[in-house]
Amino acid sequence: MNGVYNYAFIDENTKREVRRSLLKAVAIPGYQVPFGSRELPIARGWGTGGLQITLAIVGPSDIVKVIDQGDDDSVNACNLRELIHDTTGVTTTTDTRRATLIQTRHRIPEEKLTDRQILVLQVPYPEPLRWVEPSERETRRMHAERDYSKLWVFLYEDIVRWGEITLSHRYPVMVNGRYVMDPTPIPRFDVPKLHRAETLFLFGAGREKRIYAIPPHTDVVPLQFEDYEFRVEDFDGRVCARCGQGGTYLTEVFDRETGEVSYYCSDTSYCLKRQKRNLGQSVEIGGSWYA
Amino acid sequence: MAYAAVRGGRKAIQEANRLLDYYRLKGGSVPIEVRQIRDQMRLAVDQVMGEGSLYDPDLAALALKQAEGDTLEAAFLLRAFRSTVPRNQYSLAVDTSRMRVIRRISAAFKDVPGGQFLGPTRDYTQRLLRFELMEETEERAREFLKKYVEGDEWKELEAQGTLDFPKMIDWLRAKGLLENPDAAEGQREPGPIDDITRRSIRFPASRSMRMQALARGETGALLAFAYSVARGYGAIHPTLGELRVGYVPVLVPHPLHSGEVVTIGEVLVTEAEVVARMRERTDRLQAKFSLGYGLCFGHNEIKAIAMAALDRAMVSENPQAPAEDEEFVLYHIDGIESSGFVAHWKLPHYVDFQAEMIRVRSIQRQRGPRA
Predict the structure, then answer these.
(1) What is the pTM of this model?
(2) Which of A38, A254, B4, B154, by CA, is between 20 and 30 Å from B292?
(3) What is the spatial distance between Cα B8 and Cα A196, in angstroms, rounded to a whole number?
């Protein structure tokens, strides 16, 4: 632990302020609470919103996991995990089941999260209406008046133009029947996991200075039309080339020499567990979101 | 303390960090002293303090050393440091008429009351490389200093004591030539100021929010936006009423005795006041000038002037040009935020790009791939 800085880097008043904003966000699901986002020793746009939440709520007994693109081992995930560890001394893990606090960019783990875990998402764009309205002043009014007509028209026109809704990974959802929310970093594949989950989801947008939340057991419904229903990514029955598992979110890897395309689980921790189980080792794998 | 081993990323980061030190030191020259940067890279230090919004020349110099001279990166280091210290006090508004001026000019009036005072400026130098600086020795530097400080001009200046410069703007206002669109706001009870480092900006932004955002803004971004209003994307033709550089005292309320103030030090600032004619309005009979104001840490004239021009441009009720729109300006001038975001494109986007590919293929299936 780096003794030069305060526990969890940020000063105590600031952590308290972030926690107050979190309480408000939890009380009003899907509502974007403005907060005085601080600079951290990582760049704005690299997960400072998520990191401020993590640093504000992490306790000495927490076990922290950090994911980037589903991977615990990418440089940014390592960097964030190291920073959290260095400034708090808390235990870290790559095992989704062991973690009490998970900070993530772009993925919700394949193993189902429980009510004893908190998932913190790093958010680049908190505003679901930004597709249709550039002005912050105007989008705040639209949320206040529950005026989402522009967004519905946008989705409708998308279907007319392209035959389907083209949004891939910033798919707008209606939270608790009141606020339209951008679950922004995650692909469509992970959107259904937010619906009536047991886990608390916290969203932090550092550069845009907004915090929002989905409390457990909250309705989260993707915006869709009766004749054009929301669909998640389809991998055409492909399975992971490492663990043989289907039904997970896969990413393509293109082999420069052979020209072949392989598919691998983007959730590396889950994939490693599956590989171990295939080798006959005993591993505990969490439940499925869709069981 | 258990720290779960990770596979490759951590090692890669460690090696990259070591390489940074290697690249900084590989030339084999004597490591540059922080004090040298503070003294001799004066303007870089000032820019970093302004954009980092922390007045500390030593830490700014350290940040510059660590960042190998990258001012944006150095400002980022300062900003991050700010997050580790609590905010204990807000200083009182600085009275710039009490400035210990080192430079003061007016482009509006030749015979400005108090006179023009050039101070240290590069404005009138010929931009020729001074090759003798390649071989500047400590001895020569000392010799120059000794001669200069013992010279007659210096003594003359010292004898004058603190120079008194009345504010040109006050004179314009007294003559009834200056409209003050913020008069109503100025008369408001002094409440707690909006602090953008503690609350996110709301629109319409209060004047204190605007001033803070501009003062922390990246010099180059402010310059580009201010330039755009003057050369066609906007209708402001600013004249520099007054530009001052100097030291101002910083006062805070006494922590114990209410009503009393304590001077905690002084900071070097650059202040710019531009005047531009109001657009003719039907509801006003008189034509008047209006004011744009800029103030930033350190000696950074381009930034202060650009800030003042933008402050004036953003008064527009119906913004036509980007730089007249306060949301556009205030959301995009912060160098730490914009550089961080642009730099994040270097991070992997495997998951979302996968989602994007699936969507594109799906659309192609719907509509057939077109050549």
Answers:
(1) 0.87
(2) A38
(3) 36
